[in-house]
Amino acid sequence: MTIELNLVRLKLEQMQQQLNKELELILADDRSSKVQKGANSYHDRVETAMATSDLERRIALKNQKMNNLAEIEHALYKLEEGSYGVCDSCGQPIEKGRMEVLPYASQCMGCKAVCKKTNRI
User: How high is the pLDDT of residue 36?
Assistant: First the structure.
């Protein structure tokens, strides 16, 4: 079991590093792009709309990556404290198949389904 947990830790740390790199690229792109203000012509307004749409997409992507990073960090914390693989909601073991597919899962399938049903994620 110790070897398995070490492999899980390694996988989570690799995922964490990859997400950090992706976030750095998104943040660098955010700093380099600017939405044009005060567009007067039709062409300027179209460019501004496209830039705004691109910015919104990058913000959504950044938020998704940050949420994934937080989930991975939570899983690493649970590994350290010895509660990895235990549902945060009900305290029961999380299904092995779920943990293999989503090593940062913090809820069992039953609790996750209830949260989705009530719009609590």
Answer: 45
Low-confidence ranges of the chain (pLDDT < 50): 35-36
Q: What integer pLDDT is reported at residue 52 of this predicted model? A: 85
pLDDT of residue 40: 65
Rama region for 102: left / alpha / beta (φ>0; ψ in -120 to 50; rest): beta
Record the pTM: 0.76
- Tell me which residue of 65, 68, 84 sits closest to 6, measured CA to CA: 84
Please answer whether residues 84 and 5 qualify as being in contact, where contact means their C-beta atoms are separated by less than 8 angstroms: yes
Secondary structure of residue 93 in the 3-state scheme: strand
Number of independent structural domains in the chain: 2
Place of tokens 């992507």: 61
Q: Which domain holds residue 6?
A: 2-84
Beta bridge partner(s), residue 86 = 93
- Asked if residue 116 and residue 64 are part of one domain, the reply reads no
Same domain, 76 and 92: no
* Per-residue b or e along 70-83, where b marks 16 or more CB atoms closer than 10 Å to that residue's CB: ebbeebbebbeeee
The half-sphere exposure of 67 on its side-chain side, counting CA atoms within 13 A, is 9
